[in-house]
Amino acid sequence: MDLKSFLRVLKRHKYTIVIIPLIAVIITYFLVRNQGDSYSSEAKIATGIVDQTQRGIGDIVGFQESEINQEFSNLVEMIRSKRILEQVSYKLMIHDLTSDKPFRPPSKLVLTLNASARQHAIDGYTAMYKKRQALSLFNPDQNGMNKLLESMKYDDKSLLDKLQAYRLQNSDYISVLFDSENPELSAVVVNTLCNEFIGYYGELVKNNQQKSVDFLFNLLQVKRDTLEAKMMALKDYKTRNHVLNLNEKAKSLYGQMADFETRREEVDKVSRSTAAAIDSIDRQFKPGSRRYSESNKLDVTQDLISAQSQLHAANDAYVQSGFNPRYRRSVDSLKNVVSNRLGSLSDKYIVNPLATKQDLVDQRLSLQIQNDLAVNSKGAINKEITRLNNKFDELVPHEAATQSLERAVDIASQEYMEILQKYNQASLESSFSTKLRLLEIAEPGQAQPSKKMLLVILAGVASFIACIAVLFILFFLDNSIKNAVELANRTKAPVLGNLNKLSDATIDLRNIWESNQGGKDLREFKNLMRATRFEISNELKECNILLINSLSSGEGKTFFALNLAYAYGQINQKVLVIDANFDNPVITQSVKPKLYLEDILNNYSEILTVQANQKISFVGNKGGDTSILEISSEQRIKEVLQSLKVIFDVIIIEAPALDALNRSKELSLFGEKIITVFEANKNISDAGKHHVEYLKNQNDKFIGWVINLVDNDQLISE
């Protein structure tokens, strides 16, 4: 992108860039000159969201910043909502319909209302305000009321255009502003809007809190009934199964079982020790001595056996009674009797050769009694342990059922306590008032600085920027070739000259080249033409047959061919111009030559002797749908051109445009050098790109371009 080129575009459209902003400034001035002053009123609402001084007992602390911003966004959108704005609209309309000093002059639609229609409108707005309802456009009556609001600019959309509501930086406050042409109207709108919002928000919060309290109360009743039912089921089970305290009872049984286990171990120990001692004593007695001793103590022994039997019975009763102290006295008494009988056996004097073993006999009897007591007690203890185990086993199913019921009671109790806590919290919150409050009420404000001049300046600046932007977009999207440099860069071929655009509608070539008259653009054209002639001459060298064509028709190759001929005539060169453009023979029609190409190619070349003394000679064509090779053969054409080269210094052949395909390309066979005319401010089409490649493939024949109709600011001086 060339900045200089864009600046040239701006320079070329300088009047457009000046006139359009000027028109925009004038139009804006007339639109805003009768605009009234604007008055702004502001109120502030304290929300209590981030203000610690307004935090209640149950308020949650530690909100994330995103949650706080979301809360403020919800409040601001609620302020701007249609429901709140319509409440303000109703009050404003009721005021203007009932007051002698309305905020705004009555609209045309309001002036058409008669007394009954006015009263009907007042009643309708009042009813809608009390019910907090929106107007339905499907209802014809309410649709008419909405049109009244729109006519007075009191509808929600009109109010919203002048309303601003936003959070003041990171504070706890929301600012509400309204601009209007009436200071009292601005203040009333802001205060009414804030009060309606606070009232609606408070009512909404209270309703939600009451719904929460009612729901939690009903749920609390259900949980309480469930808890009572679970407790009653546990009570009934314990009563029905005579369960007082399973834990204590299990502890008691377990203690008794442990005690009896200890006693059984002691009895086993005594039984084993006494049995071993008896066996040891028995081995020391012979059978004869034992009979002798027992025969002498038979009476005492029988008494001892009887006492031992009674002691065994008393000991069993004592064990079975759970070691009742009352049986303990009987056991102790019988033990004393047995001891006395054993003493009698020891004291009885019996003459026996075995008297030395008397003590062993007494010991054996005593050990036998102890062993019998131990064996007897062991059976009783085992029965008691079995009985205690059975009673303990009976407690297991009761314990499982009791635990299940107690667990159900605990769960029901926990749920009940949680619901009770939430209910108390909700009841506490519902008893508090809402945290929203009007911190600063709106007062009628001063007139705002006039924006008329600012609007006028903005209109001029905006239109100026828009013009620049449009021109830039057009320049950016414009792929047309405007000067010789762009043509050379685009085609990768040399440009031998560039010709400026002439302002005159009709041009006399003879007058241009044979007189020094003319304006600046004509003089510039002649200079550029001379420079182009010089470049062409350098490229021709020993050749003198120059073929002139173009990519498409209408690019000025005829005008260039004639001017090039006159330019060569100025340096006293004999020039022959051959009009070979059979499709559009402009040279033939304008010059009306006496010689025609068809005649020359048919052996009429002797006629040229008449024209040989002129600087510029012309050969026309008779036109028609034909081509050069259809008129004569290639060999004949070359012979004629060779004969003409002897007479003329330069032979200029105007060929059809390359979009004529074979008609133009056939002539390329006879031109020694080819130059192509291109019109400035045009783009090379896809077909033109193929023609460019064709020209570049003509080896050394194609010497370059001449760009025509170039704007003066795009000219490149030679």
Automatic annotation (TrEMBL):
InterPro entries: Bact_polysacc_biosynth/exp, CobQ/CobB/MinD/ParA_Nub-bd_dom, LPS_length_determ_N, P-loop_NTPase. Residues 547-714 form the CobQ/CobB/MinD/ParA nucleotide binding domain. Gene3D superfamilies: P-loop containing nucleotide triphosphate hydrolases. Residues 1-92 form the Polysaccharide chain length determinant N-terminal domain. PANTHER family: CAPSULAR EXOPOLYSACCHARIDE FAMILY, TYROSINE-PROTEIN KINASE. Keywords: Cell membrane, Membrane, Transmembrane, Transmembrane helix. It is found in: Cell membrane. SUPFAM superfamilies: P-loop containing nucleoside triphosphate hydrolases. Coiled coil: none annotated. It holds the Pfam family Wzz. This is GumC family protein. The chain crosses the membrane at residues 15-32, 454-477. It is a multi-pass membrane protein. The keyword Transmembrane applies.
